[in-house]
Every structure is written in C-alpha cells, then in structure tokens.
Amino acid sequence: MKILIMGNVFNPLEFDNYKSGMETFTINTYKALVHSGHDVYLSGPSDSVIKDRFIPWPAASKYSKLLYDPTIKYFNPTENYHKYLTDIKSLNPDLILSSTGSIRALRYIASLDYPTIYFAHSYIIWKYDSLFYKYILDIKSKHSNFKVAAVSSFVKDNINSVLSDVVDCTIVPSYVPVSTDISDSRYSNSVIYTGRISRDKEIENLVNIFKNTEFNLTIIGEPSKFPIIESKWFSDIILPIINSSSNINIITSNISHELLYKELSRHSVYVSPAVGESIGYSSLEALSVGTPVISHYKKIRSGLCDFIEDGFNGYNIDSYRNRFTSIKDKFLHAAYLCNKLDNSKIKEDFSIKYSAKKYSNSIINLADKLFSINIARENIPVDTRGMGAISAS
C-alpha cells in the first residue's frame, strides 16, 4: 500500500531533539508501516520557517539504525503549495495520514480528495470551542474523504454530540521501536520514572510516595526550566526531598536511547504518577522491555487505559481491587505486586516485530472501515484496545 505521511516537523535536521508526543507518534507510525512492508513516504510543512514551503524529512543515513535499515523513500516537496499538490497527484498515494497542525496544509491536502486520516491530539478533541476545531469541522463538511482519528481511545468512551461531529474513529498508538534484545536481570523492589520533570507530571507526589521506603526509585529526565517558577519548584522542593532520601537517585543529564532502555529493563516496575497522559510513550517504552507499569489515571483523561491490564502488565491504582485508601499505600502495594508479574510475556506482547504489525494492521483496518479500501494483511491480530469507529449523530 502506498502511503504519504505528513507530519509537523519544523526543522527536520534536528528531528531527534523533538520530544513532542505527536511527533513521536508520527515517526513511530512511519516505522511501523515500513516494518510491515508498506510503501511509505514522509513529508512535513514548515510554515513557521518559510511560509508555504514544504520540507523533506531527515537524511536516511542518520536514522538507518532506528528504521531497521529500509530504503527510506522521501516525498520531496517544492516551495509552492500548488506545485506540491501536483506532486502528490504524481505520487498517487492510496492513503494520506497527517498529524500536522497547519490548517493551510490540511485544506490543500483535503482538496485532492484522496482518502485522508487526520490524527488529532487530545487538545483538539476536547477544545471543541476552539478556532482550530472549527477549521477541522469546516474541512470535513466540504470533503467526505477527510476523516479524523482521535489519538488515544479515552475520547471514545466520553464522546458527546458535539465531538461526534468531528471525530470519526480512534487510534491507539501502541507501538514504540524499542530493541528488546536486553538482559532480563532486574533489581528487586526497584522503581523507575523517565520523562519530563515538571509539576504537571506530579513528580512531587512520586518522590514523597517512595522516599525512605524499601523501594529504590530512579528518576531520569530533564527538569523544566521555563517558566521560571518550574525551575524554582525543582530546586526548592524536589531536590531537597531527593537529597534527604537515601533510596532516590536522579539523572538529569542526557543519556543515549540504549542506556535508557537498559535502565528501564533493569528495574522491576515503571511508575507513571500523572493522572492525565494522552499517549504515555514512556510507559510503552517500559512495556517494550518487559517492565510492568503502575499508573494513576482517570479514564476520562488518560490514554494509558489502552495499555495497562491489571495483573498482566501492571496495575492502575484506581481500578484494581485493593484494601488501601491512601494513594501512597496503593502505589506501594502495586509496586510489590509488580515484582511477581511475568516480564517475558509483557516483552513478547509489546515486542517490535509483533506490535509493529498489530499497529500497522490497526491503521489499515481503519482505512478499510472509513474508505472501503481492501488491502491484504498478514494474519496478525488488530490491536483493538480502545480502537473503533464513532458514529456521527
């Protein structure tokens, strides 16, 4: 299947420095489809740099290891949108996938009337009174082949008559390209968190829960420097707690992906303390190396409900049955239970080979439902956790 993916990278030469969840989603979607044998092209608008210009994605040599050494095919755009549309017609894709935030780009793409799925982040879904939402609704009203997929399934369970006007389906980003060729030797009673160190991630609760307990906590991430209040919060509140605790270790310097995955695989449990994670890629990375996840999500606010299965690959402290009432006791009890889970089964379920094909099949399955595109697929289950069509009212 020939697929054009249009992302939202403003400086493709620095792509590896981008930490945005939607950019990660876009490149992981590309990798999964390539890994499953589809003919995939990449492109990205750069309206913020040079108005009306499209730019190609990164050089193949830089990403050959991450992309399993395929022959990367670029859709090399021109500097003019009208010429760009002509180029797309020459490419003649079977399907267009887009996550760009450029309304201008989406309008031009939709005008071609190719089957197009726009991957919408949660901020677009929930802010239905926003101008961007109204632009998307306008595009949909004019182009029947333009469909919107909400990234993360928690939207589906809370859909209302307003949102159903714009959301056609949901997609679960259940794939991360993490090498699972890592030792299964783990430290017992060891807890790890990786990601941004900021107040919205509820790091203060995390360190207070595990400080001076039988569990060793490792935190890997970069403290937020802006606004300045975040920097002061880290230096005045978080660091003193860590320094006064003998069982908490923090790494704030940049480390390689290989070392990060190795650290994830050495710990007995990954903790996601925030109650709202629209995608939760750090949790997916942990699951990919067989490390179970403890989450603290409210279903209406988090996409982690797509991945966490109590008693198999972790626990959500708000859903599994326990006798505890305090958040701290719930976390500690779940951490203790995670020591007993089967790491090898978790790693197998989220392995590159299996999850890439399940995820790419999920996308093709959506295309079938939305556009009646009949594409042959390998005999691999579709990852249906939270995925499904939403009928408009």
Helices and strands in order, then pairings?
Blueprint: E1 2-6, H1 21-35, E2 39-45, E3 54-55, H2 60-63, E4 73-74, H3 81-91, E5 95-98, H4 103-111, E6 116-120, H5 122-126, H6 131-142, E7 146-151, E8 169-171, E9 190-194, H7 203-210, E10 216-220, H8 228-243, E11 248-251, H9 257-266, E12 269-272, H10 281-288, E13 293-295, E14 314-316, H11 327-338, H12 343-349, H13 352-371, E15 388-389
Helix pairs in contact: 1-13, 4-6, 7-8
Throw out a few tags for this protein.
alpha/beta; six-stranded parallel beta sheet; 13 helices; nine-stranded mixed beta sheet; 35% helix; 15% strand; 393 residues; Rossmann fold; 2 domains; disordered C terminus
Q: Could you please describe the fold and organization of this structure?
A:
Helix content is 35%, strand content 15%. By secondary structure, it is of the alpha/beta class. The strands form 2 sheets. Strands 1, 2, 3, 4, 5, 6, 7, 8 and 15 form a 9-stranded mixed beta sheet that branches. It is built from 13 helices and 15 strands. The protein has 2 domains: 2-171, 3-Layer(aba) Sandwich (Rossmann fold); 190-349, Glycogen Phosphorylase B (Rossmann fold, 3-Layer(aba) Sandwich), CATH 3.40.50.
